[in-house]
Amino acid sequence: MKVLIGGDSGSLHTFRWAVQAHLAGIEMHVFSLNRNSLKEWEAYPGIHIHYPKDNIGTDLMKSDTGLQKWRYLKAIKDIKLLLSQIHPDALHAHYTSSYGLLFRLSGFRPYALSVWGSDVFDFPRRSFLHRTLLSFVLSKASVIQSTGEIMASEARKYTRRPVQVIPFGINLVQFPCKKHKSQSERSSHPVIGTVKSLENIYGIDILIEAFALVKKEIPGAHLHITGGGSQLSFLQSLCERLGIAESVTFFGKVSPSQVPAQIAELDVFCNLSRRESFGMSILEASAAGVPVVATAVDGVVETARQGINAIVVKPENSQEAANAILSIIQDENLYNTLSEGGKNLVCSTFDEQKIRPAILDFYLHLGNQK
Fold this sequence. Notes:
Helix content is 43%, strand content 15%. It has 370 residues and is of the alpha/beta class. The strands form two sheets. A seven-stranded parallel β-sheet has the order 3-2-1-4-5-6-7, with helices on both faces. A six-stranded parallel β-sheet has the order 10-9-8-11-12-13, sandwiched between helices. The longest helix is centred in the last third of the chain and has 18 residues, at 332-349.
């Protein structure tokens, strides 16, 4: 079976899905509107990446307003040409309002649609036109997929089409369990951290405020922040104002292959997002046996399970987050419970090898929709 995915080749989510389908035996092609691809694709020469004649660029794709955003619709010609060249059995669009719209307008059937989060949580709330566009794209999708139940429920508000839940899986080989510090070392010099983009939605400012409170109790604590984004200068200034700059390290954006090593340095992983559709980084931390503190927002609660792998706190509450971090650091039994619970959760529910057959079935069912 041959499938053409519409998705950003610079996105780790697109990469993960395409690789799992490839490993399941599907011939995969990816149509990406920009050329900023991950280097990790090079390890899978059997997955073919295609681009439009003109580079659209990520800035235009992420634009929320302005008529120029619709310039990417000219890529429909490129898609139709590509379809005539590779003759796929099915299309699969990742993200409704961009690739979903392009594949919907291509006229090709069958096509599947994966919702990603903001395309169903935020996009339809902007106006009646946005809601109408979302319903238009969803209405003709042969199959709709979501990584979690909460996002699936949100998508169902705009379509009568069934929405299938297939979560992202974790490569347990890439995220081996870290060697834990002794309780005394962890209590005196803990490393708290996160691996997220430095954008307002991910609450890195709340994490920094929480860390400042932790440092008052544990002067030897350190904060590791891994990721790039538009808020870097603001966050660095916040650290200076709070007097904790010397204890905070900004590692910048790293490649996906470097993420396991970054997580392995942590004693507590924090995901204090204001909005998030799933929480993949939480599963990565749990796979490594690192306890998690996370906010109770959107799909995060599907990966951060209270008392199993995480302490779940209210959003926008740095004091509650600090208390949770301190509890994990100072309570050996709690630390061990969340560490072991996280590893067991990932192994039982989110092991990519167990999820891969569901991806194969997803495409076989899609191919039968012609």
